[in-house]
Amino acid sequence: MTTKVFRLLPDGDPKTGMGPSDMIDASAFTTSDHSETNHTFFQTDDNSILSGVWECAPCREDIEAYPVHEMMTVISGSVTMTNADGSSDTFTAGDTFFIAKGTQCVWEVTETLRKFYMIAE
């Protein structure tokens, strides 16, 4: 693994842009738009740390236990996170938030979401 300082770009790689992603199950999309793209700028050899930019059309997932620790900054769009106790927060452009591994929540993208992410397993 080569390490260096690098810039996360909101449109992905300057030469290739963003590629297809399949993190969201097709049944979770809430509109006819099922587009989802990603560009990973950094990952460790064991994939325990990842950082990049991800975009997804509106969708909704009930998550029993969030699979990773993840910090995100919303570039555009909107996502509403509802906690197990029913409290919720909506995050939009410029907001940064964190979800701890194991968190039970509802993830609902209400407007096509583009975000920077940092994932740690």
Protein topology:
Elements: E1 19-20, E2 36-43, E3 49-56, E4 59-63, E5 69-83, E6 88-92, E7 96-99, E8 105-120
CATH superfamily: Jelly Rolls
What characterizes the major β-sheet? 8 strands, antiparallel
CATH class wording: Mainly Beta
H-E order: EEEEEEEE
Q: How does the overall form come out from the CA principal axes?
A: globular
Instruction: Quote the average pLDDT.
Output: 96
Given the helix and strand composition, which structural class is it? mainly beta
The tally of domains stands at 1
| Rg measurement, Å | 14 Å
- The amount of helix comes to under 10%
Q: Work out the number of β strands.
A: 8
Give a short summary of the structure.
This protein has 121 residues and is mainly beta. The protein has strands at 19-20, 36-43, 49-56, 59-63, 69-83, 88-92, 96-99, 105-120. The protein has a single domain (28-120), classed as Jelly Rolls (Sandwich), CATH 2.60.120.
Give a structural overview.
A hairpin with a 5-residue loop joins strand 2 and strand 3. This protein is 0% helix and 52% strand. It has no helices and eight strands. The two termini are 18 Å apart. It is globular. It is an all-beta fold. The protein has a single domain, classed as Jelly Rolls.
Which keywords apply here?
121 residues, mainly beta, Jelly Rolls, 8 strands, 0% helix, 52% strand
